[in-house]
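Journal club side-thread
Mid-discussion, someone asked how the predicted structure for our own chain would compare to the paper's figures. Pasting it here so we can look after the session.
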Amino acid sequence: MSIDTPRVSSRLDLLYLVTREFNADLDINQVLRNVLSATVAAVGASDASLILFDAEGKLENNLAFSDFTMQKRSAPVIETVIQKGIAGWVRKNRTGTIIKDTTTDERWYRDDSNPELIEVQSAISVPIQFPDQLIGILTITSRQPEKFEESDLAMLTIIADQAAFALSNARLFEAEQQRRRLADTLTSITQTINSTLNIEEVLDLILEQLRLVVEYDSSSILLFEDDKSTLAVRAAKGFDNPQEALQVRIDYNEYSPNYQAIYMKIPFVIDDVDQEPRWIKSSSSKNVRSWIGAPLIARGEAVGILTVDSHEVNKYKEENIKIVATFADHAATAVANAQTVTQLQKAEATYASLFEDSTDIIFITDYEGTILDINRKACQVLRRPKDFFITSDISFIAPQLKEYLTLQTKRLKVWREPSIELSIKDAYQKTVPVEIKVRQIQYKGKEGVEWVGRDISARKEIEQLRQDMVHMLVHDLRGPLGNIINIIELIKMMLETQPNHPKLRNFLDMAKRSGQTIKDLVDSMLDVSRLEQGEVPLQRSMTNIKEILQAVEEQVGPQAQGKDMELVFDPVPDTLEIWLDTSLIRRVLINVVGNAVKYTPPEGHVSVSTRTTDQNIHFTVSDDGPGISAENQTNVFDKFSRADYSTSISGVGLGLAFCKLAVEAHDGKISVESEGIPGKGSTFHIILPILEPTE
């Protein structure tokens, strides 16, 4: 078939669209829907379907595009297709295939009585996979026989490969989110479990939180009674009769699974209790099939066991066991803390000296918020004498604390230990970020509240730096790198089939721009630190200004075209040459013009003008975007600085810091003008001195 036929052109346009979709910052499910509908339209198919499997090979999701609408077929139908149809064949053979005529091909499953299985005459089905894992199966169908050919199979294979990459990234992101949710849950429990007198309430909370990260049908916490020969249920969730479960007592003997876990001090797992001769069924555990028992070890001594039950066989994996073990550690801590409350109360005399000498901010209030005492460190940080605070209201330290005390009173009175992060101001209005932990204490024979604060300025700065760097690596590098990988695949196919196609050069230009973007990002990251230290010698040469502006337009122009923007470069003389470092100034202009395009809304306007005097060359970049507030203008050239309106735009915030350092290395100046009003935009000025060439 000729490459100029409408059908082939449509396929190439489809691959171009798919490449953009999979590199867009959109929800992966929405991207898959867009790709399915576009694929059906491009190849003239009738329908398309996508079946996805989880890491264990179980059916995870399915999407279908039929009759111009997105649908989801029932799980029994999908399972039947996987078992008996073409999807099963592709899954088994791990390769794509074409069915020219479904009426004669035994691999196609037909059931005319099922309305979910549409009438199909021909089909293509390909695996979505990596070398070590099958992720899913992509199928397109037609109600005409002999509809598809080998080029359609090649095209669908490329789409499936890109889908595999995108799905893998999405699953990695979800795994990271799950990890963060687990960390947040454990942090919440850690803050709650400290010195407590109500141990049942805390243990009950642990089981509630455990359900958020591990699926279970029932769970319990058992503690040793005084004789150490009996385990008693102290907290239970998921049982038909919770009160009955709380009455259960189990003999601790060497024949029980509980004994194995506690004696070895490691979690003990039973995949199927019906196959475990030492398992004893009770009325509360009659439906249990899978079981985890994690020992509660406090200060090296076993105090009980945390159990998790499922009605399914082989329910729990290694990651589940680790999570249960972590929660068991927290439950053990709760028990140990309850036992030490009395000891802590007896140490009140020693506490007084530690209070004054502590390196943390400490102050004590009553439950009405009146400050009863405050230590030396707090007075130093707040820059006021001790007498100034005594009998004052806690809101004088920070207005939020009074409301926080009211909200947390009930938790404090059951010996929980909440915490809050906020900023406090000293006598000179200097802001200090602190983390304050709060707990109930006995102060001079009465109930009081102790507030312990720690300066977290350094931690905040490090956290922000880490978040910014991770954000840059994920967003700024992944996009252009993904483009290069996908474009290489497209070029490979075109070179094998149509090496003279006019779009081949467009793909090469896209790859070149993406590669240049990655190189510029890496160079800027390296140069910021070296320019700050003065370790980057300028590689000056006579630079043609028209050529450098053309390079900027070639790099940034496609971004403007994609947003239907007007990007205008005022003409400069062909012979205008300046003695400067070409690479640094080219990247400065790309950064400034690229930012203008990035932050200006679609169909906006960006202009670049150049003028010279006897002493200077002056570049001006103007846009009609959201503008920059006067407050942000003071730090817009600092490292990791981002304007408020730009939080939805990817970027680590090194671009303008690099620009400032590179311009100042040329003894030049860079500045910004803006009223901070949306639509009136910003204007950046870059002024470089014109110097005579030197040897």
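Post-session note: The longest strand covers residues 431-443.
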